[in-house]
Amino acid sequence: GRWAARDTRLGGHTIARGDMLLLGLAGANGDPAAHTPHSANGLRNSNFAHFAFSHGEYQCPFPAQELAEIIARTGIEVLLDRLPDLELAVAPRALARRPSPFLRGMTVLPVRFATTPPYGGR
Asked: Which site from 38, 49, 51, 121 is most exposed, i.e. has the minimal number of CB atoms within 10 Å?
């Protein structure tokens, strides 16, 4: 959690200095109006501040953000390279999100792909 540094109002509620706030970040960066692609270049039209990395004085250092993106992108690229026929095993509408204000993801993600011999020819 976090503690309020000063008295403030947020969303019509009073938060007193010292109050503890428990933040559920699962919905962060999910507003379609703030994250729609720009028609000319395909980039998003938001201010690009990602809630998971914070902003301003408490922002995660940029190299950490870049490293996190590189790790995620590399993992996805390797997965798709090794399993080029990877596809959902169910209709997208059958997928269910995990019911949690703290974690964002699917309860299960059933996929199918062709099996291949492991590297090394065994």
From this structure: 121
* Domains in the chain: boundaries: 49-82
118: its two tokens = 């492991």
Cβ neighbours of residue 9 under 8 Å, at least 6 residues apart?
A: 15
Give the helix/strand (H/E) hosting 2.
Answer: strand 2-3
Give tens-digit pLDDT for 51-81: 677 777 777 777 788 888 899 999 999 999 9
How does DSSP assign 39-101, residue by residue?
A: TTTS-B-S----GGG--GGGPPPHHHHHHHHHHHHHHHHHHHHH-TT-EESS-GGG--B---S
Write down the residue that tokens 């291949």 correspond to.
116
